[in-house]
# Entry
Amino acid sequence: MICYEEMNLAHIPAVAGLERENFSLPWSENVLTSELSNPLSLWLVALDGERVIGYIGAQIVPDEADMMNLAVEEKYRRNGIGKALVKQLLKRLQERAVRSLTLEVRVSNLPAVSLYEGLGFKTVGRRPNYYQKPKEDAFILRKEWQL
# Structure
């Protein structure tokens, strides 16, 4: 059974491994560890037993948040785990009186764009050359809600 909880230090090595598997410029264990001590950060993990199979993170500035990263282990993809992570993040942000979540996504990442749009995110802009390795634009997506 998959469960979702806030990330802690024990999860860092596995999350860093998922970073390396999923991103051309992955965040290091040191950066991830520093996020845990940042009072403006909220990071969640998806667990299959004790195994970290996905994670999501955001930084909060009073009443709005910016999603940092989301990844799911390849063999667990297309099983709703990414969607569940976003929903868990949205729920926890609402509990903290946050009213919106903004994120960037590669314009070529159509599965991710579809996931976010299906959850009510709207395209509000485009960042030219936002991503490196390979260089690519990002869509800026945003979801707002009432508390």
